[in-house]
């Protein structure tokens, strides 16, 4: 039986604007116990995503100030996205291939939900897909020189 992402996604998604600071993004993450935020422009269109890892590696480790705009450290190019109608199995496979733990769900350029690897894991029906995705995501990469 095919199930769509709309049935398992979190639809109450916190977002940040690309002009906000990384400190503001980190505060939203901390207050809501989340590790990724879709980044939107003034029209509500998704322009990227920022993760706790982005903040750590692209700002803190580089000596950037807390007031650095999100747009300077977010992932903006080729952000992997799903759609509400996407099959859950396809989404799990995509997450594994792209080595991502969170998949923004977008419809008409607007963020409508978020699916985390944990969403797949808690639904016993998708435990195998979650395990396969995690295995792919957890494959160690070579250190940068």
From TrEMBL:
Keywords: CBS domain
Stated name of the protein: CBS domain-containing protein
Ranges where the CBS domain occurs: 9-66, 74-130
Entry-linked PANTHER family: CBS DOMAIN-CONTAINING PROTEIN, CBS DOMAIN-CONTAINING PROTEIN CBSX3, MITOCHONDRIAL
Pfam family, one: CBS
Native species: Virgibacillus indicus
Superkingdom per UniProt: Bacteria
């Amino acid at each position: 039986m095919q199930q769509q992402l709309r049935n398992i996604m979190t639809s109450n998604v916190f977002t940040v604007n690309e002009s906000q600071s990384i400190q503001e993004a980190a505060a939203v993450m901390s207050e809501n116990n989340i590790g990724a935020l879709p980044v939107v422009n003034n029209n509500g269109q998704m322009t990227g995503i920022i993760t706790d890892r982005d903040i750590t590696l692209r700002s803190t480790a580089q000596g950037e100030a807390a007031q650095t705009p999100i747009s300077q450290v977010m992932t903006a190019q080729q952000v992997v996205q799903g759609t509400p109608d996407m099959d859950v199995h396809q989404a799990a496979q995509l997450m594994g291939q792209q080595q991502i733990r969170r998949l923004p769900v977008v419809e008409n350029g607007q963020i409508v939900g978020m699916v985390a690897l944990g969403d797949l894991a808690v639904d016993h029906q998708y435990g195998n897909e979650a395990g396969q995705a995690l295995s792919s995501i957890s494959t160690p990469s070579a250190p940068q020189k």
